[in-house]
Amino acid sequence: MLHSKGREQRLTFATPFVVESGAVLPQIDIQYTTYGRLNEAKDNVIWVAHALTGNAAVHEWWQDLFGPGRLLDPDRYFIVCANMLGSCYGTTGPNSVNPATGTEYGSDFPLITIRDMVQVHERLRDHLGIERVQLGIGGSMGGQQLIEWAVQRTGLFEKLVLLATNAEHSPWGIAFNEAQRMALQKDGSGLEAARAIAMLSYRNYAIFNRKQQEQEEKLDGFRASSYQQYQGEKLRQRFDPHSYRILTKAMDSHQVGRGRGGRAQALKRIQSDTLIIGIASDILFPVREQEALAREIPSAQLRIIESDYGHDGFLVETNLVQAAVRSFLAGTSKPDRLDVYREKRRLQSLRLPGTEVF
Ligand code: COA
Fold first, then answer.
1. Ligand 1: does its nearest atom lie under 6 Å from the Cβ of 316?
2. Catalytic residues
3. Residue 98 buriedness (CB in 10 A; 0-12 / 13-18 / 19+)
4. Are 205 and 273 in contact (CB under 8 A)?
5. 3-state helix, strand, coil in the chain (%, to 5)
6. What digits encode the pLDDT tens for the residues 173-186?
7. Residue 53 alpha carbon, nearest atom of ligand 1
8. Which of 2, 80, 123, 168 is most buried (CB neighbours < 10 A)?
9. Do 77 and 27 contact (CB within 8 A), yes or no?
10. Is 194 a pocket residue for ligand 1 (Cβ < 6 Å)?
11. Ligand 1 geometric centre to CA of 92 (Å)
12. Ligand 1 atom at shortest distance from the alpha carbon of 164
């Protein structure tokens, strides 16, 4: 279908796809959106990788980065965004019909990993005839996929922008995901509760204080409560609980060093010029994880965005993100940023031993 903002398409591979856990999916559908045109040299590709509950319609969830004159400009670039394996927005996932049984996979959908998602996107890349991606960009779980992809196909991405992401999912992140899956098992409103837990990890004390502060004295009916309820309900209306479980499991399995001699060995393979962006107040993917990436990816720069928004900062702070990416693409970023940042951490830790910098 030709969409006013892009071309929404679905590609089907009717051949078995073996996932890392050993299970076989008899068929793979890939839902993707493209914007703009692939030029003759095929060198104007931006590949966007979406996060946990995102979809292939970048113009909807990153709308401030999207459009003429902006970073994701369809007049200049051929922009591709594909829905990830296991999601519920068109690519094969628990709400797809299993051709072998004629019914939806539901809870029978197999365990999948970030590596499986990358393999699916590889099929699409091959189908589109793309050999080189000028820029790969993605946050959170999208960033996890790009890291994995850049390690597997070292020459694919000329440049990478990885936001609020990590090289391996942390025990803390897995614990948040497990708490959400426990909520999912409970009752009919499990997905709402899971989202409410997730919101606590996406945001933090400061941003709740700033945006959900009461204006009047009261005993009940607090704004923070209705915010949590609203966010839960909103996700329930648009997302599939089985997908949520499967995708959070895939996130837990993210470990770029698995079978490769460890994280540092794996990241060393990445040949792309890389910009790592962290959000200072992110408690889910804390800045130390982006620091590690910047240290271990050979050609990497680190940018820390000072924002109260926590993990959600990569979606909300679009002006700051755009400015950072622009200067990176133009080659005008300050090369010493990582050192300055490290020095700041060192000084602060001297002042307050044993405490966090932010
Ligand atoms: N009671 C009820 N609803 C409330 C509310 C309250 N006290 N305060 C705000 N809301 C509503 C807003 O009206 C708004 O509604 P809408 O989405 O229908 O327009 C919604 O909650 C979001 O408001 P808010 O969170 O304050 O906006 P924001 O600009 O700070 O953040 C998002 C926008 C999209 C980033 C955020 O809402 C969100 O969904 N975060 C999760 C996204 C995500 O998945 N992040 C992680 C990716 S791994």
1. yes
2. 140, 282, 311
3. middle
4. no
5. 40, 20, 40
6. 999 999 999 999 98
7. 44
8. 80
9. no
10. no
11. 28
12. 48
Distance 204 CA to ligand 1 centre (A): 13
Q: pLDDT tens, 197-227?
A: 999 999 999 999 999 999 999 999 999 999 9
Residue 358, pLDDT score: 28
Q: What would you report as the CA-atom Rg of the chain, rounded to the nearest whole angstrom?
A: 20
Pocket test for ligand 1, best of 48, 163, 166, 227 (most atoms within 8 A of CB): 227
Minimal CA–CA distance to 287: which of 339, 240, 345, 220? Answer: 345
Residue 86 near residue 61, CB atoms below 8 Å: no
The residue ranking higher by pLDDT, 189 or 307, is 307
Which pLDDT tens digit goes with each residue over 325-349? 999 999 987 644 455 555 555 445 5
Residues sharing a CB contact under 8 Å with residue 303, sequence separation 6 or more, in sequence order: 275, 276, 277, 278, 324, 328, 333, 337
Distance CA(328)–CA(315), nearest Å, equals 19
C-alpha to C-alpha distances, 151 to 26, 43, 269, nearest whole angstrom:
27, 20, 6
| 251 closest CA partner among 161, 179, 173 | 173
Residue carrying the six token digits 């969830």: 61
Residue 80's H or E segment, with its range, is strand 78-82
Q: Is 51 in the pocket of ligand 1 (CB under 6 A)?
A: yes
Chain centroid to Cα 358, Å, comes to 23
Residues 6+ apart with CB under 8 A from 293: 147, 162, 165, 166, 167, 267, 274, 276, 300, 302
**Nearest partner of 25 among 89, 67, 85, judged by Cα:** 85
Burial class (CB in 10 A: 0-12, 13-18, 19+), 27: middle
- Please tell me whether the overall predicted TM-score, pTM, comes out greater than 0.90 for this model: yes
| Measured distance CA(257)–CA(254) in Å, rounded | 9
Alpha-carbon span 31 to 26, nearest angstrom: 17
Q: How far apart are CA 93 and CA 53, in angstroms?
A: 13
CB 149 within 8 A of CB 156: yes
